[in-house]
């Protein structure tokens, strides 16, 4: 009866949203009219591989890297690296969150340190449109767990029974001196504060469990309302009619040759145009990234099958432990516009041709021999405001743009305000010193141009030949 009532409540919420003109977009919605999918993931080790990347697909099996294959968000908090991102949409479609493991292996932290004395925090971003994101913040989820050593592989699912999110993750709480990861959960409505963490999944004996992800089944399909896949030595499947209720073992994927020795990081996706699901699994042991496993009924292990050779394509970058969101037409349009594959370029000084525009500790200047070279690479995006304009987005700090303030330039995170947009927008014109090069006229101070002075970038009026040389640049790859 409780299941029936909770589904009735969900239906009433849906009707209310339709009547008020809102679109119901539950986190795992998959309607035939929806045009595509967004995957958020990381791509490997190191400071740049362990960041947020986006990929897009129209069929769920063939993926294209967004943003030129570059990162879309970079963590500037905690360990300054992130893994295992989960993309969460609010039931009314008005907010989105990315929650991720605060972990940067091979950039100041070893696996042993991460397991035994790692970050107890998750990294969280928030957005209202999937394209303008907040600055990241840290959410301490494991600090209140006695002897909790880390917080890994977070996920979240809307729970209609409690009208909030169940946030769940893995924490190592050693047993008899040996590592033992278990899944803990807490409830939250905003990913800024949580209830006291509770044990969610604890396998018997010394068996660890690290990765788990839940998918909600459509009414009338399968034997359970929810199915979860977990990495616990196998890829174990369990079913339940309540997120926080009793879970029943369905089986595992050993019958198709996949165990926890080969794969991890389960990631569910409902195909929008038919009753078929893909369970993506990260082939960590062979270093090959995600593999799709197909099923017509996640509650029955006999329906799982490996894909035919050549029937899928994961794109140019390695896709590792993440999550997938089915996109509405409006969401897809925004995402594809914002993260278009705009090439990365450099701005070469006209009168100091061994020097390029770069950021250094978020200050903007021109320097020779820039290292790392990505400090001098920018995507010339369509201007944040105005028509026929450009804005300069950093390649290695996505979301950060060259912006003037009191006529000085810094690399600054876009706060989404009109003032920021105006300060970070320029008209690209013929070079003031050489028409074959380019100059950049300020959008909101049209009598001033981007120029260097004592190697620092400034916004100045240009009145003589020296100024014209200082304000002229070549856009080059």
Quick one: overall form? elongated
Into which percentage range does the β-strand content fall? 35-45%
Number of helical stretches of at least 4 residues = 6
Mean pLDDT: 93
Q: Give the end-to-end Cα distance, rounded to a whole number of Å.
A: 63 Å
Major beta-sheet overview: 4 strands, antiparallel
Q: Over the alpha carbons, how many angstroms does the gyration radius reach?
A: 24 Å
**Total count of strands:** 31
Strand sequence of the main sheet, in spatial order?
A: 3-2-1-19
Low-confidence parts lasting 5 or more residues at pLDDT below 50? 1-27
Structural class label: mainly beta
Helix content: 10-25%
Write the layout of secondary structure elements.
Elements: H1 2-19, E1 36-42, H2 46-49, E2 53-57, E3 63-65, E4 82-89, E5 96-102, H3 111-117, E6 121-127, E7 137-140, E8 152-159, E9 164-172, E10 181-188, E11 198-201, E12 211-216, E13 226-231, E14 235-240, E15 248-252, E16 264-270, E17 277-282, E18 290-295, E19 320-327, H4 329-338, E20 344-349, E21 356-360, E22 363-367, E23 378-382, E24 390-394, E25 400-405, E26 408-413, H5 418-423, E27 426-430, E28 438-442, E29 449-453, E30 456-460, H6 465-470, E31 473-476
Antiparallel strand pairs: 1-2, 1-19, 2-3, 4-5, 5-6, 6-7, 8-9, 9-10, 10-11, 12-13, 13-14, 14-15, 16-17, 17-18, 20-23, 20-31, 21-22, 23-24, 25-26, 27-28, 29-30
